[in-house]
């Protein structure tokens, strides 16, 4: 028995290992490590390169077809100005109203889609009967582009708010449900067998095998789903809406003010990135086992 | 071969129980494309014995494991555990799988206590104490809070053994448990597992395709034919326990190995469909499959 324990206690004469730093010490350690790698410099170089290319096209050379598009200098000076020439900057309350309205719609749509999609996907993946019952309809509705739902949404729901949220929810729901279902189907049969001989009841198998086993796929699905939620939200806001970043972009175009249009686009990019990062963060928090398994593979 | 194991009375508590397979058959596929995988299989596992099932690859060993574990049911015949017919999976028969089946989302410790906790058996403190004891015993005392992905292959197998043993099964079913381990940890695991088995001799059905491993571990070998699996030979291993590696060098073992390999070679040749002819010695065994 003791012979087997050797691989466990390997090493022994190495110098005392450094303690794991805590709090601020950890932050410093991470910064030092980060600055020592090529990552931050490559990132800065990349961003600088693309901004330069953008400047060259619109302002440096102002090539034909690009002269009407605001370049980075025009854009930033208006974006950061207290008195923007084209009406939208970080000092105008309207700008935050647009961001807030879009974010609120995304949160509602994303939570609704998750609350409906995850349970449905789990059941579809787990129970043959539920899948037989729902899958044909699901697969028929799923490929319908969200834009094709716009007229129906406007007919079905009153006002500006509900049709937009409905469209974003719908897109998000399909991505979440499908990924969750695939997640359950990806779970190795041996875990169900192990749970079976350990004497689990069906309910226990659901909570201890189906749910945690599908988790990595669910969170992949949620990341896709928040992306398509933004996509369909903006499309919907362009058609029907009174506020929101999509509305800002289209109304700026209609009013021939190009700077707010690009401000709206870039803001969408940042907010969308931030929302995916939150989903990723929550996923990693909930799935420490998965994070560690990936780390063992050097990822 | 001579019978060496001392007969042991059926003793449920210590996991010494008797398994009988009587004319067990199982096939798959539609009527017009039947594939018989197990046919009229009859053998017995004596209480406290370690029985190794050996057979050419693809002969239906895993199907037998599934039948005894209760994941699958025979089409005819019956499987009895202490005289009781097996109807489904249960905690009285624990399976240690080929590939690790530890739940990757649970820590080593949570994996071990999973069964008793789910069934709500025993006080939580007692279950925890037993889990700690078993994990220390399998040399994973420092790895209780690690996830399976953070353990080496050998550690995963030991964790799985602990997860099975905490349920005090009547029968331990091991389906090629050491396959995929490297050449260094495999003999270590074999020896470790032997010491564990010899401590209380819990009845064990051990499936392997390695004849040396089978002889080293087993009280009896059940050698299966090529598909459909039938019993080709039963060989008693007269080596004393505790087993030691040096026993593998005795002339007895060489003789057993020679016999077993000859049978296995004949059977393996059949899976080639008799299309190749390797040496005159085995020519008789090579016959075409239907």
TrEMBL record, chain B:
Keyword Glycoprotein: no
UniProt-recorded Gene Ontology molecular function terms: ATP binding
InterPro entries, sorted: AAA+_ATPase, ABC_transporter-like_ATP-bd, ABC_transporter-like_CS, ABC_transporter_ATP-bind, P-loop_NTPase
Signal peptide start-end: none
Superkingdom, taxonomy of origin: Bacteria
Coiled coil: none
Name of the featured protein: ABC transporter ATP-binding protein
């Amino acid at each position: 028995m003791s012979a087997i324990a050797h691989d466990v206690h390997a090493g022994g004469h190495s110098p005392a290992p450094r303690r794991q730093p805590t709090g601020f010490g950890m932050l410093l350690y991470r910064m030092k490590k980060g600055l020592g790698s090529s990552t931050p410099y490559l990132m800065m170089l990349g961003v600088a390169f693309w901004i330069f290319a953008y400047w060259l096209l619109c302002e440096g050379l102002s090539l034909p077809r690009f002269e009407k598009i605001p370049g980075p200098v025009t854009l930033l000076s208006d974006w950061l100005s207290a008195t923007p020439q084209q009406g939208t900057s970080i000092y105008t309350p309207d700008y935050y109203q647009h961001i807030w309205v879009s974010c609120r719609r995304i949160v509602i749509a994303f939570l609704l889609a998750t609350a409906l999609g995850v349970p449905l996907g789990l059941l579809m993946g787990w129970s043959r009967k539920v899948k037989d019952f729902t899958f044909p309809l699901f697969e028929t509705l799923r490929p319908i582009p969200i834009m094709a739902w716009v007229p129906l949404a406007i007919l079905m729901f009153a006002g500006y708010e509900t049709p937009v949220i409905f469209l974003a929810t719908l897109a998000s729901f399909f991505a979440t449900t499908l990924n969750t279902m695939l997640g359950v189907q990806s779970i190795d049969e041996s875990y169900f067998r192990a749970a079976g001989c350990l004497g689990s009841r069906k309910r226990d198998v659901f909570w201890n095998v189906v749910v945690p086993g599908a988790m990595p796929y669910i969170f992949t699905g949620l990341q896709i789903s928040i992306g398509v939620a933004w996509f369909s939200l903006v499309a919907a806001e362009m058609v029907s809406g009174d506020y929101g970043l999509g509305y800002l972009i289209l109304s700026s175009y209609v009013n021939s003010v190009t700077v707010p249009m690009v401000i709206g686009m870039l803001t969408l990019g940042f907010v969308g990135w931030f929302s995916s990062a939150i989903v990723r963060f929550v996923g990693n928090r909930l799935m420490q086992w998965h994070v560690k398994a990936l780390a063992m593979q050097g990822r | 071969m001579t019978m060496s194991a001392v007969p042991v009375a059926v003793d449920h508590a210590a996991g010494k129980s008797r398994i009988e397979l009587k004319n067990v058959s199982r096939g798959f596929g539609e009527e017009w494309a039947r594939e018989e995988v197990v046919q009229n299989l009859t053998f017995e596992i004596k209480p406290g014995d370690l029985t190794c099932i050996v057979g050419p690859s693809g002969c239906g060993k895993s199907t037998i494991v599934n039948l005894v574990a209760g994941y699958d049911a025979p089409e005819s015949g019956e499987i009895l555990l202490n005289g009781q017919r097996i109807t489904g999976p249960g905690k009285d028969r624990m399976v240690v799988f080929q590939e690790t089946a530890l739940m990757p989302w649970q820590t080593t410790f949570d994996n071990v206590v999973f069964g008793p906790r789910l069934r709500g058996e025993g006080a939580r403190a007692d279950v925890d104490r037993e889990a700690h004891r078993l994990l220390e015993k399998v040399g994973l005392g420092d790895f209780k809070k690690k996830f399976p992905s953070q353990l080496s292959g050998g550690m995963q197998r030991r964790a799985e053994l602990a997860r099975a043993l905490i349920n005090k099964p009547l029968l331990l079913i091991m389906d090629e448990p050491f396959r995929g381990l490297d050449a260094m940890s495999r003999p270590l695991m074999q020896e470790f597992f032997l010491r564990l088995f010899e401590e209380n001799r819990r009845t064990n059905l051990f499936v392997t395709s390695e004849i040396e491993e089978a002889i080293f571990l087993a009280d009896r070998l059940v050698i299966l034919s090529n598909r459909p699996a039938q019993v080709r030979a039963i060989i008693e291993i007269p080596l004393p326990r505790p087993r030691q590696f040096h026993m593998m060098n005795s002339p007895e073992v060489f003789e057993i190995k020679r016999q077993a390999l000859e049978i296995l070679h004949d059977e393996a040749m059949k899976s080639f469909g008799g299309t190749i002819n390797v040496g005159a010695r085995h020519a008789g065994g090579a016959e075409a499959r239907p």
